[in-house]
Amino acid sequence: MRSVDHIVIHCSATPNGRRTTIQDVDRWHVDAGFRRQADWRKKMNPALAAVGYHFLIRTNGALDTGRHLDEVGAHVRGHNATSVGICMVGTDQFARIQWAALASNVTALLKRYPKARVCGHRDLFAGKTCPGFDVTAWMKADMKPHPAHILEVK
Ligand SMILES: [Zn+2]
User: Fold this and answer.
1) What is the pLDDT of residue 151?
2) Distance (Å) from CA 13 to ligand 1 centroid
3) What is the DSSP string of 114-143?
């Protein structure tokens, strides 16, 4: 098992509430020049050529997988080798069902990697706003989102 010391939360930087899939992100990451290794593609999600994240949480709360957990991601400079990357679709407001999916995904990952620090991209890379909310505050609040970051779905 790969050693993981950070669980890093990202956002897709797409308009809040706009539907985005792992296939969309894969295309963007192809364009950005990312590539997955052939042997990892054979093991998991062979149709995804580039996606840098391990998980994507869609606007409907569905959890898409990207890279294998033992596969090094491409999402946070300087920390890829020992981190897992989760991307929330949106910019700074997410549906309650996305927040619930994030909480259960992070909880499951902490069972697998009990010593890992849960943080936002911006906590590891100065100048970034990603993921658009304070991950430390969210953790301290027992994974309850701040109301300002809840997208009310009509
Ligand atoms: Zn990010």
Assistant:
1) 97
2) 8
3) TTPEEEEHHHHSTT--TTSS-HHHHHHTTT
As a whole number of angstroms, the distance between CA 77 and CA 33 comes to: 15
Q: In this model, does residue 154 exceed pLDDT 80?
A: no
CA of 92 to the centre of ligand 1 (A): 12
Q: What is the mean pLDDT of the chain?
A: 97
Pick the CATH number of 6-151 from 3.40.80.10, 3.40.50.300, 3.30.250.10, 3.30.830.10: 3.40.80.10
Q: What are the phi and psi torsion angles at 137 (to 5°)?
A: -65, -40
111 alpha carbon to ligand 1 midpoint, in Å? 23
Q: What is the pLDDT of residues 49-97, one digit of tens each?
A: 999 999 999 999 999 999 999 999 999 999 999 999 999 999 999 999 9
Distance CA 76, CA 120 (A): 10
Q: How close is the Cα of 61 to the center of ligand 1, in Å?
A: 19
Mean pLDDT for 11-38 is 97
Map out the domains of the chain as residue ranges: 6-151
pLDDT value for 126 = 87
Question: Could you tell me the distance, in angstroms and rounded to a whole number, from the CA of residue 67 to the centre of ligand 1?
Answer: 16
What is the CA(53)–ligand 1 centre distance, in A? 10
